[in-house]
Design brief:
5 helices; two-stranded antiparallel ribbon; elongated; Hypothetical Protein Ta1238, Chain: A; single chain; mainly alpha
Length: 186
């Protein structure tokens, strides 16, 4: 089996039930989610924590479901490919559990204290971009499942907490974004 067909060489791609330009807003959201799930996988490989890894895989599977939902045209999309509110609730539960376990700083932090934590923080920023792209898609007139934007919003919070968990697991915490020292004036 060949990995390429050449059908996309003219700037178009297939959705399930439609052929669209690669600059279609649905493709932008799908591509950004693909990027995010890859980075979550990278963070998962670095974290090497059984609980974190299980939750990360769960999230990656949800993202694939969202990509599939967006890839179908409304007329032929099976109900099984529609993200349900229960998935948003699941993210809220996981985030709440971590919030009860990890003390958060009361101000912005500088990401990157651990490699895995930094990777989860990058995944979080990619999810934020996907969320903005999903909102733009809905604003363009596309009928978007409201649970997708809610899910992405909650996922960014969970990824933030997974980054902080990675730090806590190694006994470090991210530095505050604002220094307690006065700035030097030249």
């Amino acid at each position: 089996m060949r990995l390429f067909t050449g059908k996309g060489d003219q700037g178009q791609t297939d959705l399930l039930g439609d052929r669209v330009g690669k600059d279609d807003p649905r493709i932008e959201v799908i591509g950004t989610l693909d990027e995010a799930t890859s980075f979550i996988g990278f963070a998962r490989a670095l974290a090497n924590d059984e609980r974190t890894n299980a939750w990360s895989i769960e999230v990656q599977r949800d993202l694939y479901q969202i990509m599939a939902e967006l890839a179908f045209v409304d007329e032929i999309r099976p109900d099984a490919y529609v993200l349900k509110p229960e998935r948003v609730t699941r993210l809220e539960e996981l985030t709440d559990a971590l919030s009860a376990e990890i003390e958060l700083p009361r101000q912005f932090i500088v990401p990157g204290e651990t490699v895995a934590g930094g990777a989860y923080d990058v995944a979080r920023t990619i999810i934020r971009r996907a969320e903005r792209a999903a909102v733009a898609l809905a604003s363009s007139g596309y009928t978007l499942n409201n649970e997708i934007v809610r899910y992405l919003n909650r996922l960014s919070s969970l990824l933030f907490m997974l980054a902080r968990l990675s730090e806590a697991n190694t006994g470090v915490s991210a530095p505050k974004a604002k220094s307690d020292k006065p700035a030097n004036n030249p």
